[in-house]
Amino acid sequence: SLLKEYLNRERKVIIRAILPLRFVIIIFDIGKALMKSLQYIRSG
């Protein structure tokens, strides 16, 4: 029972740590897409 409580608490911490990471990855993907489209526009 103690282990279960500990794991639940840890899971919350892990999720809290992962969410910003996913956000950064999404922003990075958007940034790459923008760079690609900018290069495409420049080349005509």
From TrEMBL:
Regions crossing the membrane: 13-35
Keywords tagged on the record: Membrane, Transmembrane, Transmembrane helix
Domain of life of the native organism: Eukaryota
Name listed for the protein in its UniProt record: Uncharacterized protein
Lineage, uppermost ranks: Eukaryota, Metazoa, Ecdysozoa, Arthropoda, Hexapoda
